[in-house]
Amino acid sequence: MKKILLAEDEEVLRMLIVDTMEDEGYEIDEAVDGKEALEKIEQADYDLLILDYMMPQVTGLEVIENIRKNPLKKDAKILMLSAKNQQSEQEKILDIGADYFMSKPFSPLALLEKVEEIINEN
Fold first, then answer.
1. Which of 121, 8, 110 is nearest to 60 (CA)?
2. Rounded to whole angstroms, how far apart are CA atoms 69 and 32?
3. Domains of the chain
4. How many CB atoms lie within 10 A of CB 95?
5. Does the structure show a pLDDT above 80 at 109?
6. Pairwise CA distance, residues 32 & 74, whole Å
7. Model confidence over 12-51: pLDDT tens digits?
């Protein structure tokens, strides 16, 4: 079973994503902000990290920066979710170290398709 960390501060969206992913057999850990995401990343290995850009305490960008500096976690696959979908923001997100970008709003099925594409790249 593939293990995913979802860091998203919007509870309803987080629940919808978790339900969709679990229905397809993924094991999902949840974080409500970037600080909690970093704590969970230190404690476990994930096949994919799905991070919201704008979270309280620690942003998705700050989470990526921390991960990429950590020699044990730096190769983690990261999908960034963001309502900031201008080209310059997407480039910034990818330059900082996200592997993939998906703009909000999106359908849970579109996210599921993206996750399956990422997971099946190996």
1. 8
2. 22
3. 3-119 (3.40.50.2300)
4. 8
5. yes
6. 22
7. 999 999 999 999 999 999 999 999 999 999 999 999 999 9
